[in-house]
Amino acid sequence: MQKARLLVLLILFLFSLFVLPKAFTLAEPDCNSNNLGGADIDVCLARMQHDADALAPANENNKKELAALQAQVVSLKARIVNITKQVSALSSRITKRTEELSYAQKIFNEKASNQYKILRLYDPLSAFLENESAKNVFLQLEMRQRAVDGDRVTMETYSKDLASLASDKAALEKSKTSLASLQASVDKRATFLTGEVAKVEDYLAKLSSRQEELLALKAGGFETSVGDTPPTLDPCSGAPGSSSYCDPGFRPAFAGFSFGAPHRTGMSQYGALGRSKSGQNAETILAAYYQGSTLRKDYPDTTIGVTGYGRKPMEEYLLGLYEVPESWGDQGGFEALKAQAVAARSYALAVTNNGAGTICTTEACQVYKPQLKSGKWAEAVRATKGWVLIKDGGPAKAYFAASSGGYTISQWGWSGIKDASGEWPASAYEKVGGSPWFYKGWFRSRGGATCGLSNPWLTSAQMADILNAWHVLFSGGGDQGRISPPDKCFGGNPYSVSELASIGGFTSVSNVSVVYGNDGSTKQLTFYTNKGTQTISGEDLKKAFNLRAPGNIGIKSSLFNIEKL
């Protein structure tokens, strides 16, 4: 019985180890996917930041070692070149000394032969008899001995020099061989490190690129049109006085409100609707948004390649576009539909080289579906058949987007236009058209994640925290890699509010004023803080705001306001 009980306990233990973790482990997100949303983006950003933080120190050490090795290789090569020169010089000296020794040896041999002959024939008695005194005899013998000794010393000197030169040459050759071996070893290590550094640099570059993509998703940036994405009438995303406004329940309160989304280039679709409702015809609308182009009304018909559907007649292709609601045609927006038809026709011709190429069917190009329309949209297409915008001798790449916030930014060299009948923003045509994106506080991701937030409003301390993030990003004093939302949705290792405050020094914000530019951008903002006034450029504040604001709160446009309650 005891054994059976132990067996059951063992089985349950093994079950808990190998089965339960699998059953209750959440699947890791695929960070290479382009369809991430909500918390998955945060997990991937945290993971990538962790990878970058882990790789960077080792890579820096590798780069330092590689630089040292490369310097060592240069030094070794210089030393080898110097030794090679010395060996060459020694070889020349040895050759010369060998020639001199050979000549001396020849002379010595001749002298030795003559000396031998003299000694064989020499009769000391004759010398004494032929000389008047013995002194001369001994002097003659001494001179001969000196000549023999001198020749011997010369020969010994040449031999010693040759031996020394040969020894020096051997030592240099040995050093050269050792240095060459060391250079080969250093070269091998340097080659390895070069490859490792290149791989890490390439990975970090790709990592940085992917982080930028994910940050764009985090900030909510996207390119779309009205027809592809329905109006996002999010509760509590409106400004005070609007139907979607929610009081945050605290004061002071601050929120980033964006004018328009997303790219704001070319025609604003809601602006075109507002212009149509205000009595403008399609030609007037097109002239306003596509300054620098001309309208041709007799462009020849053609076919176009459509991804996944083969070639289609241009006019049939246009009937399958889902870029604006057909219902606009019954709401005073028929001229806006006509303007859209012309823009779509022109864009399709431009990107396909007059129809020779192929156009995609997603929002990256123009949204196309095989279900062809037959109502007001079809009527607008037929009414504008042959109408094409021309720029630089060919069809114009006529960009358009849902909402520009009352200002369209530059295309084809002009600085942008104020898309309003009078004072902006009160009389913006997009307001007449009812754009849900005209002025909005964004706090949800595109996938709808809220990170537990019910509105885009920030406290005074949270606004000050964003100013501290701005300080680290643009004035230094901290780790830029730790500037991210200090909440559980993002993950990673962000600064706490108190840590960031200890660097930047901002602890409270009481008010804010904004300056807009004539080009349709937010030029600067002045914050009234515990440290006095602080003026920041719109571009810099937007970056700091999007990197540090809690959850998915973000500014979508370069034209924005910081609301204060």
Helix/strand structural class: mainly alpha
Count of the domains:
3
Shape: elongated
Q: How many H/I helices?
A: 14
Instruction: Give the fraction of residues assigned to helices.
Output: 40-55%
Distance between the termini: 73 Å
Q: Biggest sheet, open or closed, and with what strands and sense? A: 3 strands, antiparallel
Strand order, biggest sheet? 12-1-16
Question: Could you name the CATH topology of the largest domain?
Answer: Helix Hairpins
The beta-strand count equals 16
CATH C-level category of the largest domain? Mainly Alpha
CATH architecture of the largest domain: Orthogonal Bundle
Rounded to the nearest angstrom, the radius of gyration is 44 Å
Low confidence ranges: 6-28, 218-232
Share in β-strands:
5-15%
Name of the CATH superfamily of the largest domain: Methyl-accepting chemotaxis protein
Give a structural overview.
This protein is mostly helical. The chain has 3 domains: about 180 residues, Orthogonal Bundle (Helix Hairpins), CATH 1.10.287; about 130 residues, no CATH class; about 170 residues, no CATH class. The chain has 14 helices and 16 strands. The strands form 6 sheets. A 3-stranded antiparallel beta sheet has the order 12-1-16. Strands 3-7-8 form a 3-stranded antiparallel beta sheet. A hairpin with a 2-residue loop joins strand 7 and strand 8. The longest helix has about 90 residues. The chain is elongated and about 145 Å long. About 5% of the residues have low confidence.
Keywords:
3-stranded antiparallel beta sheet, 14 helices, Helix Hairpins, mainly alpha, 565 residues, 3 domains
